Backbone:
């Protein structure tokens, strides 16, 4: 039983098996925490992967911050979340969308071979996710309207595979 009132919404941030310290730093920054708090989010759970950054306990007493590197499964964290902020890895995006959670995909602009950018752009074009980079994340959080997101068709991994093939140019 967590100590937060049930009305407080939760944000789950995942970087998958990689590291994306810029995302962790941005989403746990005072500016981002202030926006999240203003939008009714009271908990921020960070999956930091192989990152060097261990975020300091929240400087904002209104947003509880917890972090971990890896778990066998993120399903429980995804289920608990009211909003997911993720790197653009295909696995993380698919798992979040299949869970039916609103998703903000943050592009890692430091990646050279950025097929993730194509995936994020296509999911955004199709209306399933919001898409930004670290420099625009706080503004995206401030202006987001999650009600405009379209549900991703559930339980159709073969459609997602075709979608990925199209994105990375196999078709």
Residues:
């Amino acid at each position: 039983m967590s100590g937060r009132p049930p009305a407080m919404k939760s944000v789950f941030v995942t970087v998958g098996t990689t590291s994306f310290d810029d995302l962790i730093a941005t989403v746990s920054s005072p500016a981002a925490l202030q926006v999240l708090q203003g939008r009714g989010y009271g908990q921020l759970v960070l999956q930091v992967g192989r990152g060097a950054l261990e975020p300091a306990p929240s400087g904002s007493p209104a947003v509880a911050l917890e972090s971990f590197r890896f778990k066998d499964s993120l399903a429980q964290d995804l289920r608990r979340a009211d909003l997911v902020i993720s790197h653009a890895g295909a696995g993380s995006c698919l798992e979040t969308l299949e869970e039916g959670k609103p998703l903000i995909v943050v592009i890692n602009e430091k990646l050279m071979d950025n097929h993730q950018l194509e995936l994020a752009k296509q999911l955004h074009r199709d209306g399933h996710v919001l898409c930004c980079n670290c420099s625009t994340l706080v503004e995206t959080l401030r202006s987001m309207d999650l009600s405009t997101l379209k549900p991703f068709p559930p339980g159709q991994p073969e459609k997602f595979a075709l979608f990925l093939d199209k994105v990375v140019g196999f078709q």
